[in-house]
């Protein structure tokens, strides 16, 4: 496969970036997007040029670090699939690919395709945890959680924190991320004692770091973890619930 | 080969805080928009059903208009019900527009320099909320000048004000819609209303915190569009009937 690749090159956060066009002649359909960048970087290093900086780790859709924007779509053409699992077979021979970092004011570019997603960490730090002492592993049946409830919590906890929902949102909102966090933790008994406190923290930080949700529902089309649309309504619901409960933690 | 190691230490990126600090929280702004929007949705539905009374003839329509002024008299003063509605709707309108502008600005800031482009038709109504909203706002102003106040040049020639005894809504309406540009603007505004409602219904349900499953969400989008279309088409029949001479 021959591909023309336009890549965003940027020295660091403060300098201006630009697109640079490269040609890769020996791409194969089974290559993933990070593998394509590896191939291109081999080419660049051989030619004595600076390789393209990009994030990846697990390359199997677990860690959430690999996200880039491909032809304007976060993660790439295939819906609900992380960048590392997008293969070139969904593109035609001779096609033109435009690779940019995730675009959002909350994600400043660190270098080339790498963005700083620490805004997501700040949301988690403001309530995305259970602070009661978990102690030693409890006996398997001391806390009975119905199967359906456990499944529901698992669906929301599937978020890998890649940030694609923010990059997909015309408002740069993080409601899918924040809502998934709130939903999964308020579903399980361990998370209930601090349900309101968590909502206050998470919603306040989400407002500080990201935009408001206008229900475009673009986020659910790119989310590699398949977080359902109901997550976004959880943000308003949990915020309103916490406001009604005043100073209560639960 | 993977990313070069020096990329991280090259510069410590500033923490951006692309959202907002202080001011009305966006979640509340959205709840206000949903609540006021729901009031408007109910209002336009009732208004449309009332409008259709025109097909029952001049007398029925005029007496309906007269009844609106006299409703609950003497418990309420003359035009009492109308004034309650005017005040409630005006407050809602100010709140709705204020929150819309606030959220719009916050969204633009949080998105930053690189806007999302080339989105599909499914988000057309969502992306044009500001445009349809502005058209509706202009229409509301014109509509009040035209058929409530009868102020020229917005109002038709020969506009007759309602009295304590009778209302002339029928002849005023026919005179107004006999002006082609007015009828066309009305039809355009109703098209915008349909689009605005199509996304507004979906948005309000989600903003009220109702967790809808993906399938229900799609159904809801269809329902919103249907609701908007029913109201728009119901209303649009009236200027069409006037222009084609069905209503005289
Ligand atoms: S590299 Fe881990 S999710 Fe893509």
Automatic annotation (TrEMBL), chain A:
Q: What is the main EC category here?
A: oxidoreductase
Superkingdom of the organism of origin: Bacteria
Does the record's keyword annotation contain Oxidoreductase?
yes
Under PROSITE patterns, the record lists: 2FE2S_FER_1, 4FE4S_FER_1, 4FE4S_FER_2
Task: Look up keyword Iron and say if it applies.
Answer: yes
Query: Can you cite a GO biological process for this protein?
Result: respiratory electron transport chain
Name one molecular function that GO assigns to this entry.
metal ion binding
- Entry's EC annotation: 1.3.5.1
Required cofactor names: [3Fe-4S] cluster; [2Fe-2S] cluster; [4Fe-4S] cluster
All residue ranges annotated as the 4Fe-4S ferredoxin-type domain in the record: 150-179
The alphabetical list of record keywords is: 2Fe-2S, 3Fe-4S, 4Fe-4S, Iron, Iron-sulfur, Metal-binding, Oxidoreductase, Tricarboxylic acid cycle
Pfam families listed in its UniProt record? Fer2_3, Fer4_7
Under the heading NCBIfam families, the entry gives: dhsB, PRK07570.1
Describe the family membership recorded for this protein in Swiss-Prot or TrEMBL.
Belongs to the succinate dehydrogenase/fumarate reductase iron-sulfur protein family.
Record-given protein name: succinate dehydrogenase
Tell me what organism the protein belongs to. Kocuria soli
Taxonomy, top ranks, is: Bacteria, Bacillati, Actinomycetota, Actinomycetes, Micrococcales
Automatic annotation (TrEMBL), chain B:
Q: Which GO terms describe its molecular function?
A: metal ion binding
This protein's UniProt keywords: Heme, Iron, Membrane, Metal-binding, Transmembrane, Transmembrane helix
What are the GO cellular component annotations?
A: membrane
Compartment(s) where it occurs, according to its Swiss-Prot or TrEMBL record: Membrane
What InterPro entries would the database entry show? Cytochrome_b-558, SQR/QFR_C/D, SuccDH_FuR_B_TM-su
The protein's matches in Gene3D superfamilies, at most eight in alphabetical order, are given as: Fumarate reductase/succinate dehydrogenase, transmembrane subunit
Origin: domain of life: Bacteria
Transmembrane intervals: 27-49, 80-103, 124-145, 183-206, 218-242
Q: Which Pfam families match?
A: Sdh_cyt (PF01127)
Q: What is this protein called?
A: Succinate dehydrogenase
Q: Which organism is it from?
A: Kocuria soli
Q: What is the lineage of its organism?
A: Bacteria, Bacillati, Actinomycetota, Actinomycetes, Micrococcales
């Amino acid at each position: 496969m021959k591909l023309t690749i336009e890549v965003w090159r940027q020295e660091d956060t403060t300098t201006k970036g630009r697109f640079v066009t490269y040609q890769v002649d020996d791409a194969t359909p089974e290559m993933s997007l990070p593998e394509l960048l590896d191939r291109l970087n081999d080419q660049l290093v051989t030619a004595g040029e600076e390789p393209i900086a990009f994030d990846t780790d697990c390359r199997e859709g677990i860690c959430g670090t690999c996200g880039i924007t491909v032809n304007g779509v976060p993660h790439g053409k295939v819906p609900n699939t992380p960048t590392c699992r997008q293969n070139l077979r969904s593109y035609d021979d001779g096609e033109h690919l435009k690779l940019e970092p995730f675009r959002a004011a909350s994600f400043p570019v660190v270098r080339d395709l790498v963005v700083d997603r620490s805004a997501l960490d700040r949301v988690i730090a403001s309530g995305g945890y259970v602070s009661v002492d978990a102690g030693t592993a409890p006996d398997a049946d001391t806390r009975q959680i119905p199967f359906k409830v456990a499944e529901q919590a698992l669906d929301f906890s599937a978020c890998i924190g890649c940030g694609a929902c923010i990059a997909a949102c015309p408002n740069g909102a993080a409601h899918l991320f924040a809502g998934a966090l709130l939903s999964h933790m308020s579903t399980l008994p361990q998370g209930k004692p601090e349900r309101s406190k968590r909502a206050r923290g998470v919603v306040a930080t989400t407002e500080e770091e990201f935009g408001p949700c206008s229900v475009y529902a673009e986020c659910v089309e790119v989310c590699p973890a398949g977080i359902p649309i109901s997550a976004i309504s959880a943000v308003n619901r949990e915020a309103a619930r916490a406001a009604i409960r005043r100073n209560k933690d639960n | 080969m993977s990313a070069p190691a020096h990329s991280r230490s090259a510069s410590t990126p500033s923490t951006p805080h692309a959202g907002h600090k202080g001011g009305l929280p966006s979640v509340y702004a959205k709840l206000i928009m949903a609540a006021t929007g729901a009031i408007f949705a109910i209002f336009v539905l009732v208004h449309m059903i009332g409008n259709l009374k025109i097909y029952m003839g001049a007398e029925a329509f005029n007496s309906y208009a007269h009844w609106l002024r006299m409703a609950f008299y003497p418990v309420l003063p003359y035009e009492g019900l109308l004034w309650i509605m005017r005040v409630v709707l005006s407050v809602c309108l100010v709140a709705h527009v204020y929150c819309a502008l606030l959220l719009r600005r916050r969204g633009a800031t949080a998105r930053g320099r690189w806007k999302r482009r080339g989105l599909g038709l499914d988000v057309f109504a969502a992306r044009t909320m500001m445009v349809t909203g502005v058209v509706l706002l202009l229409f509301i102003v014109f509509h009040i000048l035209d058929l409530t106040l009868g102020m020229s040049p917005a109002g038709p020639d020969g506009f007759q004000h309602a009295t304590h005894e009778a209302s002339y809504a029928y002849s005023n309406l026919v005179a107004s819609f006999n002006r082609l540009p007015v009828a066309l603007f009305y039809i355009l505004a109703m098209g915008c209303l349909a689009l605005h409602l199509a996304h507004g219904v979906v948005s309000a349900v989600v903003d009220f915190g109702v967790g809808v499953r993906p399938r229900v969400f799609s159904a809801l989008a269809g329902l919103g569009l249907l609701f908007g279309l029913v109201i728009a088409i119901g209303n649009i029949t009236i200027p069409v009937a006037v222009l084609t001479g069905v209503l005289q």
